[in-house]
């Protein structure tokens, strides 16, 4: 059962769980810093000075509206770096973990095609820029080293056979239609979090460009 | 009396193929921590 995050009262700390609904709200709350001053909440982006104040019984929905209404504070939730880490170990901004989780769910679903060639796995027809064949190759080639790396056994000495049990999925062995669908879904997932080509080129994203989607809950049920 | 020899028997080993195990196991959440899942999105490549 999902819990509309917008209706949850502000707390001094909150762990956003898979049950909390609201695509934009989930991202917003992960970036929100709160403190109590004079029986009211001071709201800011974590670690940034400008803040707004709301009553002690305010919800996260009220918090979001209050921040949006104050340009100086709202600005700190925009222009955020998309890429973290260093080449070649880049990862997304921590507040975009839902994006990563959603995409990994897509990839996991796609792997059913390894054992079922007729696996139903549609791509995206509308709402994204068409994906070129060359881009499919580029994305699949970029993902494979990451999968290979993530498949390393972090505790090899405790494994039964002393080594990793299975190799990473060879993405290039998936049918081309499946690879295309993966890349189209990837493009959609980024877009749902406000990351289009321009944002990617600028390495800048904004909470305010994340789709509101109040009913969204991640498919991944592990927090 | 001639010494008898035993011809060794070689049991053929079938290569272990596990494609049916991949879909369930390769992204097992207990093996891929959240930040690591984030790298698989390959943010260095255009969406």
What does it look like?
The complex is a heterodimer of chains A (223) and B (47). Chain A is of the alpha+beta class and 223 residues long. Chain A is built from seven helices and seven strands; from the N terminus they run ββαβββααββαααα. Chain A has helices spanning 23-31, 60-68, 71-74, 97-110, 133-150, 176-192, 197-202; strands at residues 3-4, 20-21, 32-37, 40-45, 52-55, 83-86, 89-92. In chain A, the strands form three sheets. A three-stranded antiparallel beta sheet of chain A has the order 3-4-5. A two-stranded parallel ribbon of chain A has the order 1-2. The radius of gyration of chain A is 20 Å and the shape is elongated. With 47 residues, chain B is mainly alpha-helical. Chain B has two helices and no strands. The N and C termini of chain B lie far apart (80 Å). Classes of the chains: A alpha+beta (223), B mainly alpha (47). Chains A and B meet through strand 7, helix 4, helix 5, helix 6 and helix 7 of A and helix 1 and helix 2 of B.
């Amino acid at each position: 059962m999902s819990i509309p995050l917008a209706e949850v009262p502000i707390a001094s700390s909150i762990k956003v769980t898979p049950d909390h609904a609201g695509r934009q709200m989930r991202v917003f709350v992960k970036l929100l810093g709160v403190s109590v001053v004079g029986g009211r909440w001071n709201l800011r982006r974590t670690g940034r000075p400008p803040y707004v104040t709301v009553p002690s019984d305010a919800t996260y929905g009220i918090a979001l509206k209050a921040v949006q209404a104050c340009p100086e504070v709202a600005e700190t939730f925009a222009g955020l770096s998309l890429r973290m880490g260093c080449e070649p170990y880049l990862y997304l901004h921590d507040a975009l973990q839902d994006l990563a989780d959603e995409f990994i769910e897509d990839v996991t679903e796609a792997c059913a095609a390894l054992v079922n060639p007729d696996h139903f796995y549609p791509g995206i027809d509308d709402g994204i820029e068409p994906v070129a064949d060359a881009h499919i190759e580029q994305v699949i080639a970029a993902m494979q080293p990451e999968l290979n790396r993530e498949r390393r056994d972090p505790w090899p000495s405790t494994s039964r056979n002393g080594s990793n049990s299975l190799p990473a999925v060879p993405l290039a062995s998936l049918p081309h239609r499946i690879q295309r669908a993966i890349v189209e879904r990837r493009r959609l997932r980024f877009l749902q979090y406000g990351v289009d080509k321009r944002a990617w080129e600028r390495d800048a994203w904004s909470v305010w460009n994340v789709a509101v989607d109040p009913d969204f809950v991640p498919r991944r049920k592990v927090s | 009396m001639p010494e008898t020899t035993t011809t060794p028997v070689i049991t053929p080993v079938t290569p272990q193929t596990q494609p049916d195990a991949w879909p369930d196991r390769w992204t097992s959440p207990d093996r891929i921590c959240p930040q690591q899942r984030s790298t698989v999105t390959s943010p260095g490549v255009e969406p």
